[in-house]
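hey so u asked for the seq, here:
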Amino acid sequence: MGKKSKKQRRRERKRAKENQQANQQPNSLAPPPNLVDPNAGRVADSDGGANGPAKQNSGKSEGWANWYLIVQTFVGIALVAFTFGQVIVGYWQWDATNKQWEVMVLEQRPWLEISRPTLVEFAAEKQLKATFEVNNVGHTPGTIISADIGLGVVPPRAEVDKLAREHRQKSMSQPDDRQSVIPPGTGKQFDAIGAPIMDEASLKEIEAGTLTFLVIVRLVYLDVFGERHNTWGCYVYSAENKILQAHDKYNYMD
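ran it, structure tokens below
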């Protein structure tokens, strides 16, 4: 053979290089070693295998959901308890304030009391007459808007009770002309004059105890807060002591 030309030698080298590259390229039909599944042909168990990670993630999600519900329930109960406590505390504060106001009103309001009447005229064929004072033993002025005074001779006990009850239940909503302001620590004198003239026989019955002479008083007055109050007084003549004594039931201040 003759010498190969340069052109032939270049072709041979090119062909040899292509064959070498073809021998080095891996077979496309065979799987690469690093892509073969090591678990192929193996049965997955309940905790591992192909579905293991998904099940574990699902369990974690359910656990967090349960904890969230527990925390939410606890917070709701705490809010209800806190609200209930606020209501209780608010009621206690309101009750304490209300009691303080009531105490202040009682301490600052006027209290009008009726003193024991004194007999001025008590004789046969004379018009019965007695005087008494209304004293303010409170701390603020009291304004008398009505004063109803009655006196007379009645049968003892049963009739006294009946007359006193009727007098106490009598309506006195309309003010009269005896309005007056009684400052604290002062008093005002009132006169009680009987319309009937007592005869000698009635006087003897009073002295014997078969008849009773009594004075009944009811005052209606206002305090500085505009509230209306009443004072009742009932006094019965004592034949033994010759004075008017307070009845055991019908003396009252509200």
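Residues 84 and 90 are 10 Å apart (CA to CA). The first strand starts at residue 112 and ends at 114.
lmk if thats what u needed
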